[in-house]
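Exercise (ungraded).
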Amino acid sequence: NAGVTQTPKFQVLKTGQSMTLQCAQDMNHEYMSWYRQDPGMGLRLIHYSVGAGITDQGEVPNGYNVSRSTTEDFPLRLLSAAPSQTSVYFCASSPGPNTEAFFGQGTRLTVV
Amino acid sequence: RKEVEQDPGPFNVPEGATVAFNCTYSNSASQSFFWYRQDCRKEPKLLMSVYSSGNEDGRFTAQLNRASQYISLLIRDSKLSDSATYLCVVNAYQAGTALIFGKGTTLSVSS
């Protein structure tokens, strides 16, 4: 049972480059979300989705775009990478409101 | 005021010790509460949900006080394998659509 799968696991980008972090879940969960984790800051919500075609901003959305065309996939796009976006990114899914979330293994992104 | 606040620690305890972590949350409309565990460079994993009546899972006991907006986690008979960061989590964002995390409390258990 794969659960939540994130790719890539590691990535190095140059400032100004764009890329997409992939997230897929096979649990048929309606809710998905993206977090970033920085030292001393904890996990902060970037964007979230409550179903296909529905997305909304979290606490730190600037510099990131998302879309949800299917229940399974929730990609996170960095439009023009900046060193401040160096972080560990986690994707999570949950079956509904007020339920626990299941996390992918994370993507470690470095922007130079 | 931060939505979820925890004492960052670190808590350094010997094997067999009892240790307690505390957490406060600011949104009185929050409906669900969790403790997650995160090992170094790994993803957070659910340790236990927290209910108003209190709940226990082996050596772990979680309590919720809605009136004080306070959550606690008690670990009895600490093991070396309990060393990790413990995250207090509240499902408070936009009617429970996403989790809000505390910054975590680091526990180190030594022999």
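Further reading is listed at the end of the chapter. For now, observe: Chain B is about 0% helix and 55% strand. The mean pLDDT of chain B is 92.
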